[in-house]
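Final paragraph of the annual report: two paired records, presented back to back.
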Amino acid sequence: MDNELLNLGSLDFTPDWARKDAGVKVAAHHAAQTAVRNAPKTDDRPRKFDRKPRFDKPRFEKPRVVEKPLDVEVKILPESRALGTIIRKIQGDTHAYKLKDLAFFFLDNPDSVLLKIAPKDPASVSFCQCKACGYASTSEEDVVAHLVAEHLGDYYVQKTVECEPPKGNFAVVARCGLSGVLLGPPNIHEFNSTVKDMVRQKYPHMTEEEYRSHIEMVRDPETIEAWRKGATAKTVYFAKSDEACERPLTREQAEGEFKRVMLANMLEKPKALTITAGKALKSPIKPLVWAVKDALREESRAPYNMCFALRGAFHHRKLKFFRANDPRGPEFVTAMELKEFDSAHAIPELAKVADYVKEHPCSPKVDIVKDAESEKHLNWLVTTGHLVSFTNGVYSAVEKFPKYGPQYQKRGKQDETAAQLAE
């Protein structure tokens, strides 16, 4: 085979007549290139064959600052009102609730999670918080802006009143380039308030500076006259304590009075934040949001802190705990005082239901109840604490470690397989 390959010679399969023409053409091409390179230059423009390679200057960009989560410790607890609702729910029925499922119920609802956020270095992090709703930031300006935007209406009433059309000669009127709304001449006193109202009501995603870049000036007399005829109503504010509405205020006056009178009592600077996860996740401070998200994500993997807090709260309310299947099985909480049933001293019908559940743990109601009488016996056994009623709809006998669901069924299959292998 090797000899055959050697006998093939060159791998150029071009016919002889083509190969001869190609050689002539190649030789002519090389000669032309040499002539061009050696020709005297008539100007300074770079030619195709003497152009030097060019390299762009490296661009030195500023190192990008990578923001990190706020350096804080986040303690996760159940929110008090949500906790009270859950406790009343457990106390009001006969079911046994899985503690971990209750923990996830809180974690899946950010407004039901209470956070205690403390800076690891108090000198580097300080908080500011709205007393009215818990809104928080590391910037006092953020909280002041929040108080004005969200809580001014708690103390002032906004009303629209009729007024005379503006008098005077106006050479120009401002118009919103986004909506076409006429804002008025830029030299009148109310113009700045009008712009702020537009940003607050229609374009809250913009800064005032961004919005002003969309304002256009119109000098058309007809447009100016249209604004004048339309400016026959104005918005004023009255303090809610002013029941007679005798003291109308502009928006700026209402905000100024609100800040002077109310701000000190509505703003606090705690050493550590106590805030719901829902409020914390809405903070404008991204590093704070990231720290909260990291803590919640870690807790969702294994809700140790939430379970610990719920266990303490449930113990305080005298609720009962037990573990299913074995000492390390899932933990349950119930309001029932569980006690084993003595079938030997019970009426036969009642004993029949109790014995069936004991022999067939984790049985659904449809397998236990055959008629109205057996349903009545089942309910009696549950309400007296002689049977465990799980929230997934199955029943088990009361013992040191009552049998529960998937874990028990899996273990039962393993025991059955082991027994078969032993036989």
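The closing record of the year follows.
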Amino acid sequence: MIVDHGLQEGSCAVAARAGDQCRLLSLDPVEVVTVQVGSSGSGPEARARDARYRAFEDVAERVGAVAVMLGHTRDDQAEQVLLGLARGSGARSLSGMPARRGPYVRPLLGLARTTTAAACAAAGLTAWVDPHNSDPAYGRVRARALLPVLETELGRGTVAALARSADLLRQDADALDDLAAQARDELGPGWVEASVLLGLPRAIRTRVWRLLALEAGCSPGALIGTHIESLDSLVTSWRGQGPIDLPGHVQASRTGGRVLVAAIRQVE
């Protein structure tokens, strides 16, 4: 499946050529799908990703696919870790991309990008080099430019070490997420005792806050670290402050010894 985001002049021809190369490899079925990338909300990369994954889901369901294989490489994984470090993200962000999540499989995640490029050349395939991948306006491109510098300054194998760190952190993040989900279930619905939340280890508590916010209607992409810190202040440094507004018309408040994260009732 080839996705044409329609963000560049001539993208339709590029997508069609990629489809032709897939057919020459006797792949079947081959589908070229044009998507509409939104113009508002999150950044352009996130909007394009959302549109792409919606197309994946639609086509996979229509053709009865059991898996969607993505082409991310070890270099992509290292870039993800660098971006997470630059943003001051937690273990989940630093854990990068899993080799498999649901129907999505990344069989090339352990291979260097140079290896995949050489494989294409050996097979007589012409790989498309997206101009956006050289545009420093995008954070990922700036992170990509750092990889060869790190290999030179810190030694060969640095990129592989970054990817390996992601694998190790993912195991930790998965364990913490499981514990947080268990703690969330034990809290029950509605108002939550602040003392119970405060009694949780912070690494678990912050994840419980995130779960409560998502359940109330927050968008995962819009919920950031500062929101979680504000929520945590309801139990760590509460002195009668008012409600906390969250993305997606969600509000968190504390009354006495209890807290609530819920959607704001809209006035018609």
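The chain has a mean pLDDT of 89. This concludes the annual technical report; the extension proposal builds directly on these records.
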